Amino acid sequence: MPFRKRDAAPGGKKSTQLMLFAASDLHGSETCWRKFLNSGRQFNADVLLLNGDVAGKILVPFERRGSGYVCWFRGEQLALETGAELEAVSRTARQAGQYPYRAAGGEVEELQERDYLEKVFRRVIRASVSEWLELAEEKLRGTPTRLLVMPGNDDPPDVAEVLAEAGVENPEGQIVDVDDQHQMVALGYSNITPWHTPRELSEPEIQARLERDFAAVRDPALTIGAIHCPPHDSGLDTAPVLDEHFKIQYDSGHVRMGPVGSTAVRAVLERFQPLTSVHGHIHESAGVCKLGGTVAINPGSDYDEGVLRGVLVSISGARVRGHQFING
């Protein structure tokens, strides 16, 4: 089984090098998930880490009309006359992280009701994540690569439940022994956002959870942070500034940008100084920064284009030997 904990090095020796491939914010893009799984073999990764926001956020209903279908995709109503057309739109939707849904007659009207839409959406998410994990079992079977998947702030509770049912390691809220030397502390919640997503915490709550876990590790200098929300004002958390109506603000024709990351995450990283910390959440803010001795990295996300953005981190003992951003 590829989901088991990685075995210790032969003879009880400590591993000399760890290759971690991390990505975040796939938001239901099947294309990105397949590329993520293939990264294990491609980069000889010891660990694949999906660092939050697994599920998609848009449902694409298809309704039978006569001999064809009508669907609602990217703000348009499309008339699809053939099965090939339906499959083409479905494939494009899945690539962009959207969920094709075959609606029964009259069901599209029911989907206008919030409670019914939520019920259907959660059922579709559970089915999709289950299919993803079956694919992971197939792709990683017989390889030494270890898979870690954590829900992010946008993920409903169903994601964590399906991960647990499948036996996939969710690192959140526990101290993970990555290998004989290195441990991991993980948190997929974000600070409070304007959108009130399913998994948000106040800054004091984030700080309390992270401090509890970092205080329990053997050695922070040999610890990896898997923290979905990036540290505040680090260059990894720069996003468009919104007004109270969620409209993007402009200065002289240019989008006004500002930091939206977590002050608690920054405070904890500066205090405990883990070896490295990988993040996500702010798709347009890929980059790397140093917070004291901590190498903090956000690979960014272009999931809606079917482009996987990740980072390959090479770790040896108490040193990050290097990192490489992967876009493809």
Describe this structure in words.
- With 328 residues, this protein is an alpha/beta fold.
- The protein has helices spanning 30-42, 83-95, 107-110, 114-140, 157-166, 203-214, 263-272; strands at 18-23, 47-51, 58-65, 68-73, 76-80, 98-103, 146-150, 175-177, 183-187, 223-227, 238-240, 250-251, 254-255, 257-259, 276-278, 287-291, 294-298, 309-316, 319-327.
- It has a single domain (18-57, 121-327), classed as Metallo-dependent phosphatases (Purple Acid Phosphatase, chain A, domain 2, 4-Layer Sandwich), CATH 3.60.21.
- The protein has a 6-stranded mixed sheet, with helices on one face.
SS-based class: alpha/beta
Radius of gyration from the CA trace?
Answer: 21 Å
Query: Averaging pLDDT over every residue, what do you get?
Result: 94
Number of helical runs?
7
The assigned CATH architecture is 4-Layer Sandwich
Count the strands?
A: 19
Task: Give a brief description.
The protein is built from 7 helices and 19 strands. It is of the alpha/beta class and 328 residues long.
Element layout with pairings:
Blueprint (H helix, E strand, L loop, with lengths): L17 E6 L6 H13 L4 E5 L6 E8 L2 E6 L2 E5 L2 H13 L2 E6 L3 H4 L3 H27 L5 E5 L6 H10 L8 E3 L5 E5 L15 H12 L8 E5 L10 E3 L9 E2 L2 E2 L1 E3 L3 H10 L3 E3 L8 E5 L2 E5 L10 E8 L2 E9 L1
Key terms:
Purple Acid Phosphatase, chain A, domain 2, globular, 29% strand, alpha/beta
